[in-house]
Amino acid sequence: MTRTEEIARRRTFAIISHPDAGKTTLTEKFLLFGGAIQTAGAVKSNKIKKSATSDFMEIEKQRGISVSTSVMGFEYGGCRVNILDTPGHKDFAEDTYRTLTAVDSVILVVDAAKGVEEQTEKLMGVCRMRNTPVIIFINKMDREGQDPFDLLDELEKKLNIRVTPLTWPISKGATFKGVYNMYRGELNLFSPNKTGISDDVKAFADLADPALDQIIDRYADQLREEVELASAFPTYKREEYLAGEIAPVFFGSALNNFGVKELLNTFIEIAPAPRPRLSSTGEVKPEDAKLSGFVFKIHANLDPNHRDRIAFMRVCSGVFEKNTFYHHPRLGKKYRFSTPIMFQANERNNVETAYPGDVVGLYDTGNFKIGDSLTEGSNMFFKGIPAFSPELFRMVENNDPFRAKQFEKGLKQLTDEGVAQLFTQQPGNRKIIGTVGELQFDVIQFRLMQEYGAKVSFRSLAYLKACWIDSEDEAAVEEFFRYRKDHLAYDKDDRPVYLADSLWMLQRAIDENPKLRFQFSSEIMLHEETEQD
Ligand code: G4P
């Protein structure tokens, strides 16, 4: 197969959802169809149950499991499908946001009864920012859910995207009969089946055909009427889907394996192959001959005896080959990898080559941080790997002066890994950890002790929001902070950050300082802009 063909057949995506909507179940069913696993139940749920906020063993288990499920690759219908896993727990949302930079599209799972939930909105917000193509799967149709019209309305309003149903449900809950696939003109009848694959699909181009009444009886007229009404939704156009302007919607039940195959078949047909990515030297196309890729996730110290780290790199152009020297622009050094790995369902395999769209795991001894790129000589960096404004802040103190070095190192490595963000305040070199969830503080405290032997404590700080301050006028930045020294900190790249106590203060600061830009997310920056080859 040529390189162009290899690229064209790749589908790299993430399944995202509010916890409990059915992401794990759907992933598992995809793997079943892909032949990557043989039985349902083989993919462990990787969610930390909501109650277990301080259960360290759960955290460790989650880290262990999530390495093997970080990327699940399989072959299906001539395509190489790469599913990138995202953590379910909301405290790890930032990890999810970063993973979304490494995919070309997403499938969003929504619970038919609960509709749009908090995490659904946030995750979708990130996709909208990046114009990521989204397919929506409305799950749990076997349960009493909301009316499909109401659901679609809610999706449009709350997710700020136009939707176009490609299938339509025939009743719901206890009387759920199946779906009519308007896209293919097929009738797919439901029979509950948690382990096998139900495949009762009939071609049915014309709903007026009286045969429909025989098949679904009194639901036939209801279906005709609803499909007629549903024609008011915009017509599906692939270019609009690819531009992230419209989201095709499917209905089904992941648990019952229903509607999943249609979703997967349509997905591989319409979802984008690897897309170009923006870099400091312009657009990088998958077809470009030279290798480039970026690290979006790091797993460190899974085995404390070995200090091993795996950096997950998305290949963006060229071909990645093992034992070949590549350039690490941030460090200005060359590295080669003798045992790069790829993931097949829940196994790791050594690989010789990887193509754009693939994710390779690189064993690393501390040379990578999130956002790093690897090239064949160019000094470019990829754009758009976000760090989000944290909302919880604590000062972290080292309790054992003899372990100061380990404390500094641990803090640096854990924040390189993206567990939380680190800010420094002067005078006194105060270290402030900013996170999006409580759980990260437990993770940091636990891992600093476990992996670096550093005992730390936290002191709560009353800041509400961090935002990056930026301006063409450097004097204006200085002036702004002149009377706000207590609220000034620097991020790891030495950029000034304003820590606001309240939304009121933040708004006032924004209103009074028109020369400044207040940014609530920042690109992870590792470089001085734009050095050409
Ligand atoms: P998540 O990864 O998005 O957090 O969700 P997950 O797949 O773990 O599913 C959450 C719960 O919803 C699970 O039940 C799962 O069995 C159930 N579920 C998923 N799809 C469907 C569906 O189509 N219909 C129905 N009725 N239920 C569905 P649980 O009791 O929390 O876990 P488990 O003990 O069954 O694993």
Explain this structure to me?
The chain is an alpha+beta fold and 533 residues long. Helix content is 26%, strand content 29%. It has three domains: 12-68 and 88-270, P-loop containing nucleotide triphosphate hydrolases (Rossmann fold); 277-375, Elongation Factor Tu (Ef-tu), domain 3 (Beta Barrel); 392-532, Peptide chain release factor 3, domain III (Alpha-Beta Plaits, 2-Layer Sandwich). Mean pLDDT is 86; it is low at 45-54 and 525-533. The protein is globular, with a radius of gyration of 25 Å. A hairpin with a 5-residue loop joins strand 30 (488-490) and strand 31. Helix 11 (404-416) packs across helix 12. The protein is built from 14 helices and 33 strands. Strands 2-3-1-4-5-11-6 form a seven-stranded mixed sheet, sandwiched between helices. A four-stranded antiparallel sheet has the order 7-8-9-10, with helices on one face. It has a four-stranded antiparallel sheet with strand order 22-15-14-23. The structure holds guanosine-5',3'-tetraphosphate.
User: In the CATH hierarchy, what is the class of the largest domain?
Assistant: Alpha Beta
CATH fold-type name of the largest domain: Rossmann fold
Number of helices: 14
Q: If you compute it from the alpha carbons, what radius of gyration comes out, rounded to the nearest whole angstrom?
A: 25 Å
Work out the strand percent.
25-35%
What is the number of independent domains? Answer: 3
Please outline the major beta sheet: 7 strands, mixed
Low-confidence stretches: 45-54, 525-533
Helix content: 25-40%
CATH superfamily grouping of the largest domain: P-loop containing nucleotide triphosphate hydrolases
State the CATH architecture of the largest domain: 3-Layer(aba) Sandwich
Which ligands, by name, code or SMILES, are bound?
Answer: guanosine-5',3'-tetraphosphate
Indicate the structural class: alpha+beta
Q: Tell me how many strands there are.
A: 33
Distance between the termini: 30 Å
User: Widest sheet: strand order?
Assistant: 2-3-1-4-5-11-6
Mean pLDDT: 86
Shape: globular
